[in-house]
Structures are given as structure tokens and as C-alpha cells.
């Protein structure tokens, strides 16, 4: 795989369009679930599988993306991915039953799961190290704006039309990049290696990441004492342990875990995981606070979060340019300081906190996150030899999925536990059970944000150790270290 002297902007534009549709679709159904429950006559636990199932397929396929990207061309992967995504969208739009809708949703996910790692690898291959920050900044803009638009658009459409319209809108938008891919997309200079796929690694990876994602995603609704939660988490941990040991023994591992021998990549992974957990506190807890405690409609809730996501999208290319010139640390420290401060402000919410005050704090928080996420991730990837890019991007994307699920479940559990204990204290002091509900929930939300503040503070302390990888070593020199192990 060789770096091109001039980035293939036409190829990247096609891939960007496909990735935008795939990421946009990920959050599209969140607000539509109540309407789907009524229309298809299913309960909340069953309807939630439209979100959980999508996440599970992503968790299973993203680790395998490293193998697929090395084995097949970017054109072949893109066409297959967008074909699966389009087929799943059509199935979901026409689904007569919930079972068909769920199948369509999971077929969608099987295509979407390959888009993010594919695009990141093409970006790394197309741009030289000194220009990757700006390129990955544009990539970050797509990654942030797409899921932010999803709930807002979904709320408007579901309130006005049928939930099926969501899929009928996505379908033509997905077919456009598919047709462009078939007729216009060319292969970048990937070396398609004759790799062998280890079936046991794939099984262990699926059980490991799938078990963790399902277990932690279900904990908030089922409770930690439910066997479906703690048993799947236990299976996931055991499977991942076995998976890690097996990868260290294989000549051609499914995921090359030796990337963690590179200190900046290891540090960037830990910071990204920590930041993802802190970030999800606002994404999960704020809608609960706004809709349940403040009584604001879902559409207004989505609109409140939209400016923050748009600011993050606008800032991504700018922070990319700054990263190229000054490195990640200059951005990460002030960015994380802003995240810590704004998260602390969210831990002091009251019944009278204003709508626009919340919007301003949330927007500042997302501004801080925009200074950290992509620069830190790109800094870590820059230290890897080129042959390890597929493994690095696969690991980063998988960890984001898993840490998001873990962070959500952990913070929701903290909120529920604190809410119950506070309600009991209020009732014991003479407050009626009905009057205690809202103050107790507010205390639970504030407590979760307090814990999230400490998580963000941990990420800030880790960022003190960020260094810019030594770019004097060429990709060819770094490749020599692994020449014997990865001889073509």
C-alpha cells in the first residue's frame, strides 16, 4: 500500500457520501420507537432490539473489517457494503411485521459497519502524515453532524408522517453513492494480501464484543441482577480474553493487538474510551432531564442538542489544521478542560435551569470534545506502520462502540440507584411518593454528571502525556520492523 502524491478527492467524496448515510441512519429510529411499537404491536423491550441489534452487528463486523480491508479492494468493499445497506433499507421500509423490520435493520447494519473503517483507511492512505489532521477533521465533521441530524429529522417526520417515510427517504440517498461506486469508484493503491481468516478468532470476537455490547446495553432496562445481563457480560469477557491470547499466537491475526506496543496509539485509545464514556453522559442523561423533568417535547429536545453538534462539525476541519501544525496536545488539554468544566456545570442542574442556558453549556461541551476526539485518535494512528492501519482503525471503531455501551449503562445505573435512594429518603422525611419523584430523579441525574466529571478529569490527566510521534522515520523504515513477520 503506497501513499498517493495527490489525494483522490473524487473517490473520497463518494466514500464520504456513503459513510454519511450509514452514520445518519444509526440514530434515525431512536425517536420513532414509540410509533413503531404502536403500529407493529410490540412492547418497549422488543422494539429496543432495533437499536441493540444494529449495535450488535456493528460490534461483530467492525473487528473483522481489518481482515476484509487487507483482503479485498476498497471498491469491492464499498459496493458490497452499500448494496447490503440499500437492501436492508428497502426491507425495513416495506416490512409487514416487526421480525422483517428487525432483519432489514440488521442487514443495514452489516453494510454500515464496514463504511467507517473503510473510509478511515482510505484517508490514511490518501493523505501524507503532515496533512492528515485536516483530512481527518473533515471526516470528523461527517461523523458528528450525521447522527445529530438523525433524531431532529426523525422527530419532525414521525410527528407529521409515518415512520416508514424515514426509510423511504434514506433509500434513494443510499442508492446514489452505490451507483457512483459502481460506475465511478476506482481502487486506491491497496495491496490485496492473500490472507487466511481464522474462524475461531471470528467466533471469539463475535462472542466477546457482541456479549459486552448486549450485556451493557441491556443493563439499563433489565437491571444488573438479570441473568441475561451478567451472563452475557461474563461470556463476553471470557471470549475476549481467549481472543487476545489467540491473536498473539497467530501469524495473521484477525486483529493485530501488537499495535498497543506503540505508546501514542495505546494512550490515544485510553483517552478516546474515557472521553466516549463521559460524552455519553450528556447524550443519554440530557434528554431524560429535558423531557421528563422539564416537560419539553422530543423535537425541542433534539433541537437543543443540534447547535452543539453543528459547532462540533464546523470545528472539526479547523482543529484538523491546528493539529497538522502544532500537534494533538495543544488541542487536547484546553478541549478536555472545557469538557470537565461544562460537565461539572451539568452536575448542578435545578428545576429552574433555563432552556437556553442548557443549550449554551451543551454547545460549549461539544466544542471542547471537537478539540480532542479526532486529533487524539489521528495522533495515535500516525505512529503506526502503514500495514497496521486497518487494525488500528478497526480497534478504534470497536472500542468506541463498546465504551459507548458501557458508559451509557454505567451512568444510567448510577442515575437509577441514586434516584431510588433519594426518593426513599424524601418519603421517610414526610414527602409523598408522587412529590418525591421529580426531585429524586434530578438528584440522580446530577450525581451521574458528577461521576462523569471525574471521568473527564481522568482523560485530561492522561492528555498530559501526549507526544507528537517522530515523523523523521519514514513509512518504509517503520515497515522494515515487521518485514519478517508480514512477508508478502
Automatic annotation (TrEMBL):
Ranges of residues in domain Major facilitator superfamily (MFS) profile: 11-471
Endpoints of the signal sequence: none
A Gene Ontology molecular-function term?
A: transmembrane transporter activity
GO CC terms of this entry: plasma membrane
**Membrane-topology descriptor:** Multi-pass membrane protein
Localized where? Cell membrane
Which chain positions lie within coiled-coil regions?
A: none
Q: Which key words tag this protein in UniProt?
A: Cell membrane, Membrane, Transmembrane, Transmembrane helix, Transport
Q: Does the keyword Transferase apply?
A: no
Q: Which top-rank group of organisms is this from?
A: Bacteria
Sequence intervals crossing the membrane: 9-29, 49-69, 76-103, 109-129, 136-157, 163-183, 195-216, 228-245, 265-290, 296-314, 326-346, 358-377, 447-466
The entry's family comment says: Belongs to the major facilitator superfamily. EmrB family.
Q: Which PANTHER family match?
A: MAJOR FACILITATOR SUPERFAMILY MULTIDRUG TRANSPORTER MFSC
The identity of this protein, by name, is: MFS transporter
What species is this protein from? Planococcus rifietoensis
Amino acid at each position: 500500500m503506497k501513499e498517493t502524491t495527490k489525494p483522490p478527492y473524487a473517490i473520497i467524496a463518494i466514500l464520504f457520501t456513503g459513510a454519511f448515510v450509514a452514520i445518519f441512519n444509526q440514530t434515525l429510529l431512536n425517536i420513532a420507537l414509540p410509533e413503531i411499537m404502536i403500529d407493529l404491536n410490540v412492547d418497549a423491550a422488543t422494539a429496543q432490539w432495533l437499536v441493540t441489534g444494529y449495535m450488535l452487528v456493528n460490534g461483530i463486523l467492525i473487528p473483522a473489517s481489518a481482515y476484509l480491508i487487507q483482503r479485498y479492494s476498497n471498491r469491492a468493499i464499498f459496493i458490497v457494503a452499500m448494496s447490503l445497506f440499500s437492501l436492508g433499507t428497502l426491507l425495513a421500509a416495506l416490512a409487514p411485521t416487526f421480525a422483517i423490520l428487525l432483519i432489514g435493520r440488521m442487514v443495514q447494519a452489516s453494510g454500515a459497519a464496514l463504511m467507517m473503517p473503510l473510509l478511515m483507511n482510505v484517508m490514511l492512505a490518501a493523505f501524507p502524515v503532515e496533512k492528515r489532521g485536516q483530512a481527518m477533521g473533515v471526516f470528523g465533521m461527517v461523523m458528528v453532524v450525521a447522527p445529530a441530524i438523525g433524531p431532529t429529522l426523525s422527530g419532525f417526520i414521525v410527528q407529521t408522517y409515518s415512520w416508514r417515510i424515514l426509510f423511504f427517504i434514506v433509500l434513494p440517498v443510499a442508492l446514489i453513492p452505490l451507483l457512483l461506486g459502481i460506475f465511478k469508484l476506482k481502487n486506491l493503491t491497496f495491496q490485496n494480501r492473500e490472507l487466511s481468516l481464522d474462524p475461531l478468532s471470528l467466533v471469539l470476537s463475535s462472542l466477546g464484543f457482541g456479549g459486552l455490547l448486549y450485556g451493557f446495553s441491556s443493563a439499563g432496562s433489565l437491571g444488573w441482577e438479570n441473568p441475561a445481563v451478567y451472563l452475557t457480560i461474563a461470556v463476553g469477557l471470557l471470549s475476549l480474553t481467549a481472543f487476545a491470547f489467540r491473536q498473539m499466537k497467530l501469524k495473521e491475526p484477525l486483529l493485530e493487538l501488537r499495535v498497543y506496543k506503540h505508546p501514542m496509539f495505546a494512550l490515544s485509545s485510553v483517552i478516546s474510551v474515557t472521553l466516549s464514556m463521559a460524552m455519553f453522559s450528556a447524550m443519554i442523561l440530557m434528554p431524560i432531564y429535558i423531557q421528563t423533568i422539564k416537560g419539553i417535547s422530543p423535537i425541542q429536545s433534539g433541537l437543543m442538542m443540534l447547535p452543539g453538534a453543528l459547532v462540533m462539525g464546523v470545528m472539526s476541519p479547523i482543529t484538523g489544521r491546528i493539529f497538522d501544525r502544532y500537534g494533538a496536545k495543544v488541542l487536547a488539554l484546553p478541549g478536555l478542560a472545557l469538557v470537565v468544566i461544562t460537565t461539572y456545570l451539568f452536575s448542578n442542574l435545578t428545576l429552574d435551569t433555563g432552556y437556553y442556558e442548557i443549550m449554551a453549556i451543551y454547545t460549549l461541551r461539544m466544542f471542547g470534545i471537537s478539540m480532542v476526539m479526532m486529533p487524539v485518535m489521528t495522533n495515535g494512528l500516525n505512529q503506526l506502520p502503514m500495514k497496521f492501519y486497518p487494525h488500528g482503525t478497526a480497534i478504534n471503531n470497536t472500542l468506541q462502540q463498546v465504551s459507548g455501551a458501557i458508559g451509557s449503562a454505567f451512568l444510567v445505573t448510577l442515575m437509577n440507584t441514586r434516584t431510588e435512594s433519594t426518593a426513599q429518603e424524601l418519603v421517610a422525611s414526610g414527602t409523598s411518593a408522587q412529590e418525591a419523584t421529580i426531585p429524586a430523579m434530578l438528584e440522580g441525574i446530577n450525581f451521574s454528571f458528577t461521576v462523569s466529571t471525574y471521568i473527564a478529569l481522568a482523560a485530561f490527566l492522561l492528555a498530559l502525556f501526549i507526544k507528537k510521534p517522530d515523523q523523521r522515520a519514514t513509512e518504509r523504515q517503520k515497515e522494515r520492523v515487521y518485514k519478517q513477520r508480514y512477508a508478502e
